[in-house]
User: Fold this.
Amino acid sequence: MTDLTRGLLGGLGTGVTWAAISVLVRSLSGTITPAGITAVRSTVGGAIVVGLAVAAGYGREIVGMPLWVVLALWASILLAMGIGDTIFFASLDHLGVTRALTLSMANPLLTTVVGIGFLGEEATLPRVAGILLVVGGLCLVVSGKGEAGAERRGSVRRGVRLVFLAAGAWALSAVILKPALQVVSVIAAAAVRIPMGGFILWLTPWTRGTVQAVRKSTGAERGRLGAICLLSAVGSVLFTSGIKFGGVAVGNVLASTSPLFTLPFEMWVLGHRPSRQTALGAAVTVAGIGLMNL
Assistant:
């Protein structure tokens, strides 16, 4: 298996896990705050990754990791999960999932420009065309769902600001992460990276009342929160793999494909039929992914 294929699989796997996490987080929005969910999932998910890393023999690599690598990994997760994810989840209440996901496409566009223009990543014509098709296809997917958004103008403006802040945080996180991944393994990087986001969030006022909210939640809600934690652990490893082997441009673009993977869930579980625009967007996205592998 080539490095590019590993990067593609890591990025697409991240898109799958993020799609599932987004649906589950939305179902808990009235029970636990976005910051609280992020703190819990990064803490528990981080513990899972650390345990698996130590059991798999990565403990020595983690302990001997250079300081600059540790700091880069911590900065990356604080930007991505501590700031980006939390702000994005908050934007859902102002914009709805469709609008928020559409605007969040600014993230892969930013990382593509930085990865190819400033980090010197390979920019073949098929790869660039594939990236543009993926981003364009995803915009068609989410805009074709016709979800009602927030009604108040002030709420919409606030939601737009939040989404663009989140997209900027995600893009900067991927750029910071790339150099560190050149000198450490994917598993060791994920084990050092993900727990720090939760640790910092627990120190902020945003997570006050989270423990009480979890205790008061129903068994079904705690089950969904547990699933979010497990998916976060898996997604963290997949994301680092996508960036390490696929590069910032390819890895981060494919990590943004979650709208594509929500379609089967909506069809099989909710019985929703996609519009023609959404179906066209899915086809364009798949074609773009195929071009990126050439």
DSSP finds twelve helices and no strands in the chain. Residues 3-292 form one domain. The mean pLDDT is 85.
